[in-house]
Amino acid sequence: MRLGGRIAAAVEVIEDMDARRRPVADALKDWGLAHRFAGSGDRAAIGNLVYDVLRRRRSLGWRMGAEDAASLVFGTLLDGGRDAGGLAGELEGDRFAPALPPEERIERFLTADVEWAPAAVQADVPDWLVEPLRAALGEEWIEEARAFSARPPLDMRANRLKSSREAVLAALAPFGAAPTPIAPQGLRIPPIEGEGRHPNVQVEGAFQTGLFEIQDEGSQIAAELCGARPGEAVLDYCAGAGGKTLALAAAMGGEGAVHAFDSDRQRLAPIWERLNRAGAANVTVHSPRDDLSPLADAMDRVVVDAPCTGAGTWRRRPDAKWRLGEKQLLRRQEEQDNVLDAACRFVRPGGHLFYVTCSLLRAENAERVEAFLARHTGFALLDARLLWADRFPQAGPRYLAEEIGEGAVLTLTPRRTGTDGFFFAALERRG
Ligand SMILES: C[S@@+](CC[C@H](N)C(=O)[O-])C[C@H]1O[C@@H](n2cnc3c(N)ncnc32)[C@H](O)[C@@H]1O
Q1: Where is each SAM-dependent MTase RsmB/NOP-type domain found (predicted)?
Q2: Which of 45, 257, 310, 334 gets the most CB atoms within 10 Å of its CB?
């Protein structure tokens, strides 16, 4: 495909996604099925254009003075280093190419200073999120929010049960993988540049034989902070496909017991194959109908990686930023309270409960912890900054911390920790 066809395809996908209010991944997949002639390079380039627009659609529209999909796609191309004259030349005679925006719009786009735009435009978020983000991210919330508009890296975790970070680094050397700065087993391939795409590391022998997993460094950090040790009994109450379960099992060196539970069998389904590949033999998977009562009051650690809005993953799922609404946020809060109430009864006296989300919003994070503490006086909040200092002494305090009573909770962000947004709180059941 030539550039004009790729631009037209990106416009079609964005319009389809908007018209049918559906996830961008579905719209891209449908486009691919209907255009089987498109090669993998075309698909990657179209995907990049679409995702780049979605990450910054508000500021692109403001600068262009137009919000139609074609204007936004041209905006990302201009930001990507193409000049208007070059683009016009490249698209000349290309019958698939949408018309370039008029010259005065391009001029406006190139000279507009987003610092003069309303705060929500600068931050590239919907208006209603201004106050929640300010409350969560503090004075520098606009810079923090902007960092969610960047392309993300591809992060992986070396599986200590089968390999080492050094060995996996050697296996992934052709892809430019390097150690991540904080998590001890993390590896990173930098964000995509230009029209490229990340290598499909899942077809590598090292992946197929379980030497590493794909996992954002923020998720690795959250699992590390749970501090699971060999020989302990740990319940991962919202195990889903097992990202944290696998990290916990590896941290325990395969010794002790990890119980993985989820209320949704569909979400849990991939865990079996992943456990197998990783050689995580000390994990018992419990499906929704299982009787968990034998585990009550018996777990050293219970991890609640709660269902949330995913507001911390906007770099990877930028369409979610524009779809998120107040109703969804309220629904998630109710689920979070319920899941914490259900999970806490498994913590043994003196044991620990960890609350993790991949959201930034206080309503899903600190406020849920405060509400939990008010309902459960037998639990006390720990100072998670101390856990961080113990686990990552070299990293320094890069997180955002909020003090609640005598304890403190942590938020990781792309700007501070270079990870997806994650929230972490640790509570202790009084002995
Ligand atoms: C953020 S995801 C978990 C991701 C997973 N821990 C990982 O690291 O890959 C949240 C999970 O919570 C599960 N969930 C939602 N409500 C639940 C409940 N009441 N009890 C247990 N699990 C629940 C969802 O099915 C979903 O899989």
Answers
A1: 144-430
A2: 45
In a domain, 408, yes or no: yes
Closest residue (by CA) to atom 12 of ligand 1? 238
238 is annotated as an active-site residue: no
pLDDT digits (tens, 9 = 90+) for 254-265: 999 999 999 999
CB atoms within 10 A of CB 247: 29
390 marked as part of a ligand binding site: no
CA-based nearest residue to 135, from 400, 405, 373: 400
* Interface predicted TM-score (ipTM): 0.99
Determine if ligand 1 sits within 6 Å of the CB of residue 79: no
Kindly state if the Cβ of 238 falls inside 6 Å of ligand 1. yes
Pocket test for ligand 1, best of 157, 215, 238 (most atoms within 8 A of CB): 238
Domain extent at residue 182: 154-214
Average pLDDT of every residue of the chain = 96
What is the tens place of the pLDDT at every residue in 216-275?
999 999 999 999 999 999 999 999 999 999 999 999 999 999 999 999 999 999 999 999
Q: pLDDT tens-digit profile of 91-116? A: 999 999 999 999 999 999 999 999 99
Query: From the CB of 355, is ligand 1 less than 6 Å away?
Result: no
Whether 337 lines ligand 1, by a CB cut-off of 6 Å, is no
Q: Which member of 226, 238, 308, 358 is catalytic?
A: 358
Question: Is there a single domain that holds both residue 338 and residue 419?
Answer: yes
Does 118 fall in a domain?
no
Q: Among residues of the chain, what percentage have pLDDT more than 70?
A: 100
